[in-house]
Amino acid sequence: MDPTRSAGLDRAHVLALEWLDSLAGRPVPPRLTTDEVAQRLDPVLPDGPTDAATVVDELAAACDPGLTAMPGGRFFGFVIGGTHPAALAVDWLVSAWDQNSGLRVLTPAHSAVEDLTETWLLDLLGLPPGSAVGFVTGGTMANFTCLAAARDEVLRRHGWDVASQGLADSPGVRVVVGAERHDTIDLALRYLGLGTPEAVAADDQGRVEPAALAAALEAGDGRPTIVCLQAGNVHSGAFDPFEACIAAAHDAGAWVHVDGAFGLFAAASPTRRHLTAGFETADSWATDAHKTLNVPYDCGLAIVRDRAALRAAMGMHGDYLIFDVAGEPMDKVPEISRRGRAFPVWAVLRALGRDGVANLVDGFCDHARTFADGIAAIDGAEVLNDVDFTQVCAAFGDDDHTRAVVDSMLADGTAWTTGSRWRGRAVLRVSVSNWSTTAADVDASLEALCRAAAGNPPTGV
Fold first, then answer.
1. Do 444 and 414 touch, CB atoms closer than 8 A?
2. What positions are modified (N6-(pyridoxal phosphate)lysine) (predicted)?
């Protein structure tokens, strides 16, 4: 092998293993600020070349103190998951292989793996066979992709072709959402030129109230309609009542999209599948494989029942491209150039198997239940949500004390838990989504929470 190439890879391999080995013992928050990390890097772009090993060493030395231990078992700040070892190893190959996976003829290896992974995912989640799965950058773009297909299709049913006529002078699209949908739904709608959606009432766990949805749909103005539902509220982890909501939406002629950024994989667990009952009758589903499935970043999944609708919204043609009659991977996603995202998804599914994915989901839920029970035992603490999935929201007396507990946890460094505001109260939020979290991690984090709630000085890891 070319020594110039191997030297950089060898150093990266060593430093990557050192980083992973450090996760069990290092404080979770970073030790330096953005400005402090910047001061460790040479601000002047050099005139000449620098060998790859030196570049790797320089970056690692400067950045290590500014890294958050997100891949470790004690990061509960956001629902972002970790990276399973099989997926990480294969992701290294993805970068080494350097395949632009947009065209089937150009990258048959990735296309074969993508086709198989698509079939596995639909089977695992109990979604309609033959649905299209697009591998996009993350949950936001998964929502965007599905809602683009929805927008174009509901307008097409009303005799309007967005591809040729644009949105100006169209009948418009009415989008109905729950009051506690995730903000990325609104963001995707803004990208799509659909504006602010119409919100209907949600219950005390953030679930859409079917009667409120039905009433809103009955009061419609005749415009093409999309209904967005949710599998996993970001605060409570709650799931919308899919059977009733989807039936009402379809009766009104609406397209139904399910935002399942982290909750969609509840369907893979026999003990949690009831949470998603009826969701398979929707028209599209979005999730982020980095979250509950624990593959590396840059891998959202946009799933659309009607393959033709997705291709009509996302596909393009160019005389210089080599098209295959079986259809192109790029016809299911916004990007033409993209990395081989299906490889790490295949790897984690192959490594875990059906039972392993179910155990992964159940483990997250069990840890969340342990957190809830431990927090409830703290004097003055209150768990505010029904802990049915992976989320725990807690308050520690009044808002000021709750915010102080959040700040104390970050200062302690044992675990990362995030502050938020839910239903008019300051809360501390625990999100369990990392394959490497152990019972010992949860116990240590609860001990830190007890210290923080009691106002004791932080001790760190």
1. yes
2. 291
**How many CA atoms lie less than 13 Å away from 57 in the CB half-sphere?**
9
Give the sign of the dihedral formed by CA 307, CA 311, CA 314, CA 320.
positive
Distance CA 51, CA 3 (A): 11
CA distance 149 to 310: 5
Residue 429 backbone phi and psi in degrees, to 5: -115, 130
Q: Rounded to whole angstroms, how far apart are CA atoms 249 and 176?
A: 10
Nearest alpha carbon to residue 152 among 118, 194, 123:
194
What is the CA 141 to chain-centroid distance, rounded?
A: 10
CB atoms within 10 A of CB 130: 11
Q: 334: exposed, middle or buried (C-beta count within 10 Å: 0-12, 13-18, 19+)? A: middle
- Over residues 249-282, the pLDDT tens digits come to 999 999 999 999 999 999 999 999 999 999 999 9
17, 263, 359, 440 from 29: Cα distances, Å: 19, 26, 28, 19
Residue 165 to residues 152, 161, 170, 189, Cα–Cα distance (Å): 11, 6, 8, 19
Helices and strands counted in the chain (H then E): 14, 11
Q: What is the 3-state secondary structure (H, E, C) of 69-125?
A: CCCCCCECCCCCCCCCHHHHHHHHHHHHHCCCCCCCCCCHHHHHHHHHHHHHHHHHH
Query: Which uninterrupted H or E stretch holds 132?
Result: strand 132-136
- Indicate the pTM of the whole model: 0.96
Could you report the per-residue pLDDT of 156-180, keeping only the tens digit for each? 999 999 999 999 999 999 999 999 9
Whether 198 contacts 176, CB under 8 Å: yes
Contact present, 290 and 299 (Cβ < 8 Å): yes
Q: Could you count the other beta carbons within 10 Å of the beta carbon of residue 350?
A: 16
Could you state, in chain order, the average pLDDT of each consecutive group of 10 residues for the chain (461 residues)?
A: 81 97 96 97 96 96 97 94 96 95 90 97 98 97 98 98 96 98 98 97 98 96 96 98 98 98 98 98 98 96 97 85 80 93 98 98 98 97 98 98 97 96 97 98 98 81 61
